[in-house]
Amino acid sequence: VDVTGDPRTLLDRDDIDVIAIATPNHTHSMLACWALDAGKHVYCEKPVSHVVEEGRRIVDAADRTGLICASGTQGRSAASVRDAMAFIHEGGLGEVHCSRGLCYKPRRSIGGDTRPRFVPASVDYDRWLGPVAYRPQQRPRLHYDWHWDLHTGNGDLGNQGIHQMDIARWALEADAMPARVDSVGGRLGYVDAGDSPNTQVAVFDCDGTPLVFEVRGLPKDKASQSGKWQMDRYEGQSIGNVIEGENGMVRVSNSYNWADFIDRDGVKQREWKGGGDHFANFIAAVRANDPAVLNAPIEDGHLSSAFCHLGILSHVLGEAAAPAAVDSAWSGDAVALDGWRRMKAHLDANEVDLTATPVTLGRTLRVTPSGDAVVGDPEATAMLVRNARAPYAF
Fold this sequence. Notes:
The protein is an alpha+beta fold. It contains 11 helices and 14 strands.
């Protein structure tokens, strides 16, 4: 194995045809664009971007170069998930009422020490930061916990959650940006160095059908906080998808190797099993030199990533709100209100005092179909864009 501290040394080599990117989120788009422009096929892990506009840059680079560019959303290659999606798209659920993604995944405190510190001498921190603004490390651990620092990560909505977001969007065949995005949540139950929500309900208007995403990082109740955390479930799922329609619901597991259809009487009528080799699908597309072979083309990775970013952006631009204010704000949307009230019950079970640490009621975002602007909101529009620092422009 050849080891390098600078990926550009790989991009200059003629004996390398394919680049796989599994760095932290904030460098995914930079590396993907560099690699495509250097003539390499690209497999980019999820989320493919750190902010919305970055994903469009990769799509444009792939179109410009004609190279293969895949997204690391493995559910797209699982036989069970593909069969379940076909069932929905062929009308098996009838009219779809709601597509729901769930990320009820244990996330403990990362520690509250936010004093600036030097990173380990073994890390080239400037290169590690890449395109984002230079800032000292402000958490106890450099690695992994960058997910919960929005300077470099996207919270669990854009970490585990993007897998379920991709399936939730796929179920609706939502091939454009959501018309509207709302959010409620916060970093609740502990105080630490993270700034991403560990508890959140985000609601996306997909051509009139709601896509609802729920993040819960705390266990099911206060008693579960000792020992191994037991997590909540919704229709039997803690991490997964539930797509609800007039004929019942389809559930998709986090393992991506089974899905089922439950009718309105609660009786299981269909079950699909089988996984898939997502990376093998990418290699097959490279060998065929045909982007149409891909199960997860970069356009899908961009859209699913962008949905996650918009949910986080709504939160970042939101304001602290009392429960009654959230009730009032969401009273006209029964699906959203149900998500919020179940989330509040979850926080009550964890004895979170919403007077002392209120939730954040996110700013409503009305997004253009291309995703290049938030209507009437220049502040939010500016936050869609990556202004990369030198020499990490792409």
